[in-house]
Automatic annotation (TrEMBL):
The keyword Nuclease does not apply. Residues 523-532 have a biased composition (Low complexity). Keywords: ATP-binding, Nucleotide-binding. PANTHER family: CARBOHYDRATE TRANSPORT ATP-BINDING PROTEIN MG119-RELATED (PTHR43790), GUANOSINE IMPORT ATP-BINDING PROTEIN NUPO (PTHR43790:SF4). It comes from Glycomyces buryatensis. Residues 501-559 are annotated as: Disordered. Pfam families: ABC_tran. Residues 509-522 have a biased composition (Acidic residues). This is ABC transporter ATP-binding protein. The keyword Nucleotide-binding applies.
Length: 559
């Protein structure tokens, strides 16, 4: 399939999300569309997939202009799409999710479970995507859920073009590596791919050509051999510093002291097992580890969302184990959550409301039992300007923002109030290079003004660049604390369970593990297609069509 976009434009009132976009994707090509959060990437893809109607311009497939009134038209034309925010029905099986909108039936219109399973297994085998058709989607790791979305997109009638909208935003390094291999395999088999991203290394790794969009306009056409600096500058429209300039830390008194922290989950497993950790004022402690070793539980326990079974959490000399999350926040704890959708924002609230979620009862935002809307609006206008939140107004719902701009709302909220300790879990996940630069600079400023910062990141490069001291977590314990100039192979050994002594004195000729990307992930284990053949029994009819199964707002997800 040869896809051509000519002058494609989308306006929402006076706001132009995409402005006269020209773009061509050749058969079997991986064409990357690069841009910062809010550049118009997702809006462009939503027009191509029939979710949004262009204000003007043309979509041509193999030279023929086509008009899509909905996703079903795009699917019929051979276009599949994997959205930035997955559109799976959690309690449904993989097979049920894949057949939504294209249900397999037998005599009398009864849904056929056997046909649905066979369709999943057929696509899985054809493209090398391991899936159990009977697995329940909400029980699968994120990386496998994305694989379900890809199989669903490829299950359309002769899918020849696959749109991947920010596909790596929520994946672990190992899952990202696997996805890039899947993309190469699909392209080699003749499938064209539109790869929407703002991650420079990933674009360099797989793209055949790159189109850069900034504020709704095409500003550059680049080869994948272009430098990261060149791509970043084209995205942001200015020179971007990809290295972090900071002076040596000057640690002071302890801000956070964790002693013997133990948390047992509902299955009786110790997700934190006697963990000890201290963060001082004026330092950034980076927590390194393969995801799933207790990082999430540690952050949530510090905030008070999880109750420890043993141990102490001391903030500024006070044992806060019995304190509520709201009290901890009021006492100076800042928190950037790993999962912004669950813990960071309320999607149905406005940008302005989300910016004061943890201060809405306080002056000047409330008084005499009355919320002061003018004060909240003024706060929002200031934060929108300072943190470059791409939104039409403070009253716009957060659900209509791109993922990166939703992250900026959280960053703005947490950096705009007094705090002594900041727990930042994956703070740059899903944000563009310009926003990453800004967040890193703000974290260093926090440190330099006396805040203690605990940085939890799955990106080892980010840990090395930001941390003044690195703590390595494995199976719910801190197994070593090292300086940021420690060789990567030492940290890699600690991350997979080596003792400090063994990590420092291992045989230099052995195969090294240098980061999370080297670890076998739950995704790989959960994806085996070992389920037995199911009987041809009816499945549940969801009543949901493909054109209905989207939660995009009318003004697009990535303006």
């Amino acid at each position: 399939m040869r896809l051509e976009l000519r002058g494609l434009t989308k306006k929402f009132g006076s706001f132009t999300a995409d402005d006269n976009i020209d773009l061509t994707v050749e058969p079997g090509q991986i064409h990357a569309v690069l841009g910062e959060n809010g550049a118009g990437k997702s809006t462009l893809m939503n027009m191509l997939y029939g979710i949004l109607e262009p204000t003007s311009g043309e979509i041509l497939i193999d030279g023929e202009p086509l008009t899509f009134s909905g996703p079903s038209d795009a699917i019929a034309a051979g276009i599949g799409m994997v959205h930035q925010h997955f559109k799976l029905v959690g309690p449904f099986s993989v097979a049920d999710n894949v057949q939504l909108g294209r249900e397999h039936t037998r005599g009398g219109g009864v849904l056929s479970a056997k046909a649905a399973r066979e369709a999943v297994l057929d696509v899985s085998e054809r493209y090398g995507l391991r899936l159990d058709p009977d697995a329940i989607c909400e029980d699968l790791p994120v990386g496998v859920q994305q694989r379900v979305e890809i199989v669903k997109a490829l299950s359309g009638p002769e899918t020849e073009l696959l749109i991947l909208d920010e596909p790596t935003a929520v994946l672990t390094p190992a899952e990202i590596t696997e996805l890039l291999e899947i993309m190469r395999s699909l392209a080699a088999s003749g499938t064209s791919i539109l790869f929407i991203s703002h991650k420079l290394k990933e674009v360099q790794a797989v793209a055949d050509t790159i189109t850069v969009i900034r504020r709704g306009k095409v500003v550059a056409e680049l080869e994948p051999t272009a430098s990261e600096t060149e791509m970043a500058s084209a995205m942001v429209g200015r020179a971007v510093t990809l290295t972090i300039d900071k002076t040596p830390a000057e640690p002071g008194e302890p801000r956070l002291e964790i002693e013997g922290l133990t948390v047992v989950n509902g299955a009786g497993v110790k997700v934190l097992d006697g963990l000890d950790l201290t963060v001082h004022s004026g330092e950034i402690v980076g927590l390194a580890g393969v995801e799933g070793n207790g990082q999430t539980e540690l952050a949530r326990t510090i905030l008070g969302l999880l109750k420890p079974d043993a141990g102490q959490i001391i903030i500024d000399g006070v044992n806060v184990r019995s304190h509520t999350p709201s009290r901890r926040i009021a006492d100076g704890l800042g928190y950037i959550p790993e999962d912004r959708g669950r813990d960071g924002v309320i999607a149905e609230f406005s940008v302005a409301e989300n910016l004061v979620l943890n201060q809405y009862k306080d002056m000047p935002y409330a008084g005499g039992g009355v919320v002061r809307a003018d004060a909240i609006r003024q706060r929002a206008l200031g934060s929108i300007a300072e943190f470059d939140i791409r939104t039409q107004s403070p009253n716009e719902l957060v659900s209509s923002l791109s993922g990166g701009n939703a992250q900026k709302v959280i960053i703005a909220r947490e950096f705009s109030r007094p705090r002594h300790l900041l727990v930042a879990a994956q703070p740059t996940r899903g944000v563009d290079v310009g926003a990453t630069e800004f967040i890193h600079q703000r974290l260093v400023t926090e440190r330099d003004t006396g805040t203690g910062v605990l940085l939890i990141s799955s990106e080892l490069d980010e840990i090395y660049a930001m941390a003044d001291r690195i703590a390595v977590i494995y199976n719910g314990r801190i197994v070593g604390e090292v300086a940021p100039d420690t060789p990567r192979e030492v940290i890699g050994r600690l991350m997979v369970g080596a003792s400090m002594e063994d990590a420092e004195h291992a045989d230099p000729d052995e195969v090294e593990v240098t980061g999370p990307e080297a670890e076998e992930t739950p995704a790989a284990e959960a994806a085996e297609t070992s389920a037995p053949e199911a009987d041809d029994t009816p499945t549940t009819d969801s009543g949901t069509s493909e054109s209905d199964s989207n939660d995009e707002q009318s003004n697009g997800g990535d303006r």
